[in-house]
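BACKBONE GEOMETRY TOKENS:
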Amino acid sequence: MALDSDKKIILLYVLDVLKEYTDNQHMMTYNDIVTKLNILYGIQPNVKSIARNIDTLIDYGYKIEKVRKNGCYLAERDFDESEVMFLVDAVYSSKSISPEDAKVLIKKLTRNCNKYDKKKYKHIYKVEEISRKRSSQIFKNIEILDNAIDNGKKVSFQYNEYNISKTFLPRMDGRVFVMNPYFLVNNNGKYYLVCNYDKYDNLANYKIECMSNIVILNDDVKPLNSLPNMEKFNQDEYINEHIYMMTGESVDAVLKLSTSKAINDIIDWFGDQVNIYEQKNDIFARLRANEQALIYWVIQYGKIVEVVSPISTREKVKETLNEILSKYI
């Protein structure tokens, strides 16, 4: 007679088999499950015990569909197929996660998938062919910064960059930066800390993967709403305005669109709060954005957008374009 502990283990084994080998396209009979348990774990329970285990799992909340007399499959998982694909693509498209860390994360994400769905992600494993910075410290940095923000404490860190030899070294001879951390942003596959340097009254954005030797200090942060013009600070607006996470002032701008197709690009980058309107058969977009980021964006989409106002921003676009053109003349 099987021990109670053995019965509990068999229950988990049955669940593992259902997760790995069944879905609505791949049913297993109770006899199939017995055979698979024998092959995988060297155990051979009887069909009645399999039926009892299936009923126990259903009672516990697992959505297991019974088919005909002795067939079944796992009908629902923590994530559906489209959700898993979205998360897998997000991990692999991140420029901050190393190939090794990405593989570990994907393995965890697909752990709940059956063997048939796991095959669909094999093509993504070519990610190592993509050149990107390896930053195994990124998750630790995020954890430390998140802890500091939760506790309202300042942080210190060194900020690194590559030199001509492609060596990653601290900036400014190893200077230690002390900042008031407010929140973290994931922008275009990169993680940023939005923070404030006590000496100034504006916000700054630092790439988290470039930080090292982060220390949580005992000093309390300067409240965000104590900064000038930050009494009604809106985090979502800030993120939409800073599409490239550049530091600097934001401007209220009007752009002229040469084609209605540009509306998709405008909304993709700046959000659906952008005001789109027609005037004398021309299409315009009114938005607020970080000025430097807007200049770079307009140059990127220069064939289909034009800065109408502010005039100062329009002039800066012209100056930048002239500088670029001079390199090719």
User: Anything to note?
Assistant: The two ends are 89 Å apart (CA to CA). Residues 160 and 169 are 5 Å apart (CA to CA). Residues 138-232 form one domain. The longest strand covers residues 176-187.
